[in-house]
Amino acid sequence: MLIPNVTIIGEIDWSATGSMISAIGTWGFGSLAVVSLLYLREQIKQAKEQFKQAKESIEKAKESIISSSYHSTHNLMIEIDRHFFDHPEMIKYFRDKAELSSAQNDKEKMQVKMTAEMLADYFDNVFHQKGTLPTTDAYMAFQNYMQETYANSPALNEYLNKKEGWHSKDFIQMLTNSKTKKDVI
After folding, report:
1. Contact in structure between 92 and 155 (CB atoms under 8 Å)
2. What's the number of domains the chain is made of?
3. Which side of the chain, N or C, has fewer Cβ within a 10 Å radius?
4. How confident is the model at residue 17 (pLDDT cuts 50, 70, 90)?
5. pTM of the entire structure?
6. Is the residue at 12 inside a domain?
7. In which domain, by residue range, is 175 found?
8. Residue 139: inside a domain, yes or no?
């Protein structure tokens, strides 16, 4: 049975239909590619913004670490000053080149040795934090203090010679000033 009012005009030209389907597909995939590129562009913009925010956070963290390190270094220095204030008899062993053998008694000798260990530990701490101090000048001021103390303290010299393996070679070289200041930084 034939459907009324339907006339067949002619046969379908499949080659033209294939070209048309191909053109639609090309336009469809082209549009999809453009949308994908726009989406990718947006993703890149968001990634750049996240990178910028991460970089800012890192800078703030770095500033905080530097501030904290400097504060900690100064607090420890104040503790050392307080130690010398509370024990003025120790000053001559670390600033006036007094020999350990000049100690009045065994208790004073032990105090000198313990003060030498405390200073060596503090100096080692500062030396290994040099990269976290705010400026090269800030570190150089500490380095000058450490080297001067070492040069004026036979007790500190003796302690470090006996405990040679307790501190890094770089630290000892800085303290003994066996490198130039330029090489230390």
Report:
1. no
2. 1
3. N
4. low
5. 0.65
6. no
7. 67-184
8. yes
**What is each CA distance from 39 to 26, 36, 51, 77, 157, in whole angstroms?**
20, 5, 18, 57, 67
The span from the CA of 167 to the CA of 165, in Å, is: 6
3-state secondary structure of 177: coil
Question: Residue 149 has what DSSP assignment?
Answer: H
Q: What is 3-53 written as a DSSP string? A: PTT----S---HHHHHHHHHHHHHHHHHHHHHHHHHHHHHHHHHHHHHHHH
Closest CA to 116 of 161, 85, 69: 161
Q: Is 48 part of any domain?
A: no
- On whether residue 53 sits in a domain, the answer given is no
CB-CB contact of 110 with 155 (8 Å): no
DSSP string, 65-119: HHHHHHHHHHHHHHHHHHHHHH-GGGHHHHHS---GGG-SSHHHHHHHHHHHHHH
Separation between Cα atoms, residue 9 and residue 31, nearest integer Å: 34
Instruction: Express each pLDDT in 86-136 by its tens digit.
Output: 999 999 999 999 998 898 999 999 999 999 999 999 999 999 988 888 888
- First and final CA of the chain: distance in angstroms? 101
